[in-house]
Design goal:
The structure is a homodimer.
Chain A: E1 8-16, E2 20-22, H1 52-55, E3 61-65, H2 66-73, E4 84-88, E5 99-102, H3 105-115, E6 119-123, H4 125-133, E7 139-145, E8 147-148, E9 153-154, E10 162-171, E11 177-185
Chain lengths: ~190, ~190
C-alpha cells in the first residue's frame, strides 16, 4: 500500500505507558498531570528524539481528524496561524478560514500534493491509525508518559501493524520517554 | 494497599509498542522476530536501564503465574536451577521439585517472607498486574520492541493504575527501548 507522493507523513504523539493518548471520553488531563514530577532521572542522548521545538518548525502542513480539530478549537486562540491545516472528516462542514475540510483520505492526499508540501504533521489517534494503515506515515515520534491509566482512547487499534527503526531517544526531566522511529513497514 | 515486607518486587518484561507481551493465544514469536534488525540507532546512556545481565543476578526468588510456568516448561531444560521459584495458581497441583505452588497471593507473600528473600522477580502478565494492584511491585523494567502487533495478551489491564519515576533508559542495538522505572504509586 505505497502511494507515490512528494511529502513525508510525520506523527508526534504522547501516550501513557499502557498506550492511551487520552483518557475516557477524550480527557487529556493526564497529559498535563506531570506524573512523578521531580523524581525522574533526565537522560540526555547523542541521538535524541525529536521534541516539539525541533519537530514543529520543520512542518509545512498539518492533517488532523475532527476530534482533534474540535479539541484544538477549545484551546482558544488558533495555534497554527498561517499554516496549511487540513481537517479529515467525512461529515464536517465549516467556513473556518484556518482550515480546509477534506472528506476522505484521498482528498487529503490530493490537497497535499497540490500544495507541494514536504513535511506533514499527522495528528490525532484515528487519523494516525488510518494514515499508518495506508502507508502514509514515515516518521513516528512517541512520548511515553510514566503513567498507566487503564482506560481511554488508544493510539493503536486492533488493525494496526507496524515495524520501526529507532532513530533517536532520550528521557526528559519530566519523565517523558521520547523515541523517534522511522516506519519500516505497516504490515 | 501497602503491605509490610522485607523484599522488593521487581518486574522485567518485554512488550510491543502497543502494549502486548504476547500475541494471540500467547504466541511469543514476535519477541524473537528482531523487527527492523540492523536498522536501529543504538543509544547508550549514563543511566542505563537494567538488562537481563544486570537484573537477573540480583534476584533471589521468582514468582510467576501458571501460564508463564507452563511456557517455561516448554523451553526444555529448567532455566532456574537452585532458584526459589513460586508458581501462583489457584488450581495447579504439581510435584515438580523446581517450584513451590502457591494458591493465592497471600500464600506467595507468606512464602517469600518465610524465605527471607530480598529481590523477587515477578513474571507473567497476570501476576505482574495482580502484584502491581496490591502494591507489591517496586521496580519495573520494560523493554519496548519496535513493533506494533495489534492483538494479543496485554501487559496492563483496564484496572491497572501506576505512576512511575524513570531511573534508567537506553536503546539496544536491536531497537529495544529499555526503561527502568521505580513504582511511585498504584492508584
Amino acid at each position: 500500500m505505497t502511494i507515490k507522493r512528494s511529502w513525508q507523513g510525520r506523527a508526534f504523539l504522547g501516550m501513557s505507558l499502557d498506550g492511551f493518548i487520552a483518557g475516557p471520553g477524550g480527557d487529556l488531563s493526564f497529559l498535563e498531570s506531570e506524573p512523578g514530577k521531580g523524581q525522574h532521572t533526565e537522560i540526555r542522548s547523542d541521538h535524541p528524539a525529536l521534541t516539539w521545538d525541533t519537530f514543529f518548525p520543520t512542518v509545512d502542513a498539518i492533517v488532523m481528524g475532527r476530534t482533534t480539530y474540535e479539541k484544538v478549537l477549545t484551546f482558544g486562540e488558533w495555534p497554527y496561524p498561517g499554516m496549511n491545516v487540513i481537517v479529515l472528516s467525512s461529515a464536517l462542514e465549516s467556513d473556518d478560514p484556518n482550515v480546509t475540510i477534506a472528506h476522505s483520505p484521498e482528498e487529503v492526499i490530493a490537497l497535499l500534493d497540490d500544495a507541494g508540501v514536504k513535511n506533514v504533521y499527522v495528528d490525532g489517534g484515528r487519523t494516525v491509525q488510518e494514515f499508518l494503515a495506508r502507508g502514509l506515515i514515515d516518521e513516528f515520534t512517541v512520548s511515553i508518559l510514566p503513567i498507566v491509566i487503564g482506560d481511554g482512547v488508544r493510539l493503536f487499534g486492533p488493525e494496526s501493524r507496524a515495524t520501526f527503526a529507532v532513530e533517536g531517544a532520550h528521557i526528559e526531566a519530566d519523565g517523558l520517554a521520547r523515541i523517534t522511529y522511522r516506519v519500516l513497514s505497516n504490515a
